[in-house]
Amino acid sequence: MRRGLWTVLALAILGVTAVGIAYARTDIPEPNEIATAQTSIVYYADGKTEMGRLSDSEGNRVSVPLSQIPDHMQKAILAGEDQSFYQNNGISPTGIARAVWVAVKGGAATQGGSTITQQYVKNYFLTSDRTLDRKAREILLAVKIDRQQTKDEILENYLNTIYYGRGAYGIQTAAAAYFNKDVSKLTVAESAFLASAIRGPSLYDPALGEQQAANAKERSGYILDAMVENGWLSASERAEATFPDTFVDYKPRTLRGTSGYLVEMVKKELIATHKLNETDIDRGGLRVVSTIERPKQVDMEKAIKEERPSEKDIGIGMASITPGDGAIVALYGGADYAKRPQNAATQDKMQAGSTFKVFTLIAALESGDFSLRSSLNGASPRYFKEFADPGADTEAGRRGRVKNFGGESFGRMDLRRATGQSVNTIYAELNIEVGGKNSMKAASDAGVRSTLQPNVGNVLGTDYVTVLDMATAYATIAAEGVRANPYIVKEIRFLDEGIEPIPVKPVTKRVFDEDLMSDVIDAMTYPVEGGSARYVGQNLGRPAAGKTGTSESFRSAWFDGFTPQLATAVGLYRSGPDGEELKMENLPDSGDITGGSYPTRIWTAYMKAALDGTKVERFPEPANINKNAKYRPSQTSKPSGPTSQAPSTTAPPSTTPPPTTAPPEPTPTPTPEPTPSEPEPTPEPTESTPGNGNGKGNPGGGGKPAPSASPGG
């Protein structure tokens, strides 16, 4: 016991000595250049080329003496941030303990109930990195400054350096930015508002929306009540301090061009994934390296400009991802973020069309009941009670008719060729056997994050998904079953070079077996090598796999595909003035837009340029799993009616609401119409067998579902 007590005492003495030495050696540094140095910048993946800036701050700051700042403004800040400011020694022991505990458990050192002195130190002398080392430096500096400066000096410096939003650093600039007046003329209510704004300008500026206005009113009321409780404001003065109703008109600096979508994505990821707050981003001096590779981004924008339809109301979203890693290397969310801030690749949703058939194929092979050699009946039309819609306008619809593109009827066909020719009737039967729930699960496992429905119609693409969803899911297949969460922030750096940059590690998980994926990839080479996307095979010059998709009435058109080292999805849609879905059918310049036309041409132009000079990689040999699959045609749903032509019908409608999209404003560029050899389908299937990207086999035929039939393509 005696030895233990002496050990504890010795450790305590050593700890106190270490803190004392650290305190003595801690010098108060020169303040950062707030006007420029603390602006956060986003770079392309090379870490050198600037993409854009993360805040609208211009670094405006005008210092004023504390005597010029109204007493009620000073007290409003104390009420909101540090009510014991004049009594404490510059730090909050309970807040520090909380921060240490969170960090010990593995979190960031962000907790702390910081005093005004600590905030002043962090904002004026230190960067906003989130480590215990930075927290320790903050504490030592706060204590030292508290001893070397008077409380009034600290408060004056704090009021003159804190960021209030609207590009305003310091209370004098903030008074002008919000109320167009000198700080000395601020009212009690205006002071309470400005004390609220520093918590997060984008959350409390009424000019940014109704929710921000409500937040500001609630926070201002809290501050005013706290002033009364502390004896800094009388009850009558509190009653007269109504929320300001006159603010200076303000429009935040808007990001422009295609890069605006990327910078906004970076900002959202910093908040959602890396838990940075608005202050960290607005004035943290961050240097954020994105995953976007500028050459590929240029290639993508060029491909869209040169190959897109000429109609102005056609929206395009595109995303390119590194399989097995999740890095977004290029993304097109629209032509100009300033004109349309909704991202066509991450926010707009379109029916998936036949790109969804791949997930039914995965579910079928996973079940063990099917192999790629399993054959089904490709006749058209076919009737399935599971696809019946009691509310349909025709008898055929009520009975559940499914037909192939153009009504083309095929004989028995294995799943490889059925994938290449996108045979609706075969995949409708397959999904009945597999179950819509299992197709939905396969899509979710692959990385589709949009809301999906477990009905049998999902195989024909009734679900609404984003372009990034499909790029992620197809990247999982390209990575032979390894799903990687998509991300756009590659590294976070700090102004203080003594602080190590924070690298971002990919988040991956194996979700499918490699042998299963080798068979799925093999089947997905069939559309490219002679099916609905044969334009790719004719022009790319290297092995590729993918799937076209065209939804009912041509409301969306897709091509999603990949090589072993790059997965890319492109989706086209058309919307009206109120965001309603419009058909891309019989257009004046472009005719009918299908997955095998413009989407495939855009995809090929981009991938050809993006992969230029890189090694030609080949896909794995198919494993041909489930060789002893017991599936027989007699075990499947049989046609429940005649196979003669009948009026078309649609699959059961998706319960997912239609996309909410404002009219896109792309840059129109005249593009020649596809030649007769490019659109889908080919007149008749061939008996030749496409290969798997290993140089085997010959191209086969292609086919697309009818626009009047169930969504597909």
Automatic annotation (TrEMBL):
Residues 692-704 have a biased composition (Gly residues). The keyword Electron transport does not apply. This is Penicillin-insensitive transglycosylase. It comes from the Bacteria. Residues 51-227 form the Glycosyl transferase family domain. Residues 654-684 have a biased composition (Pro residues). Gene3D superfamilies: Biosynthetic peptidoglycan transglycosylase-like (1.10.3810.10), DD-peptidase/beta-lactamase superfamily (3.40.710.10). Residues 618-713 are annotated as: Disordered. SUPFAM superfamilies: beta-lactamase/transpeptidase-like, Lysozyme-like. It catalyses: [GlcNAc-(1->4)-Mur2Ac(oyl-L-Ala-gamma-D-Glu-L-Lys-D-Ala-D-Ala)](n)-di-trans,octa-cis-undecaprenyl diphosphate + beta-D-GlcNAc-(1->4)-Mur2Ac(oyl-L-Ala-gamma-D-Glu-L-Lys-D-Ala-D-Ala)-di-trans,octa-cis-undecaprenyl diphosphate = [GlcNAc-(1->4)-Mur2Ac(oyl-L-Ala-gamma-D-Glu-L-Lys-D-Ala-D-Ala)](n+1)-di-trans,octa-cis-undecaprenyl diphosphate + di-trans,octa-cis-undecaprenyl diphosphate + H(+); Preferential cleavage: (Ac)2-L-Lys-D-Ala-|-D-Ala. Also transpeptidation of peptidyl-alanyl moieties that are N-acyl substituents of D-alanine. It comes from Ornithinibacter aureus. Residues 639-653 have a biased composition (Low complexity). Residues 323-565 form the Penicillin-binding protein transpeptidase domain. InterPro entries: Beta-lactam/transpept-like, Glyco_trans_51, Glycosyltr_51/Transpeptidase, Lysozyme-like_dom_sf, PBP_transglycosylase, PCN-bd_Tpept. Keywords: Carboxypeptidase, Glycosyltransferase, Hydrolase, Multifunctional enzyme, Protease, Transferase.
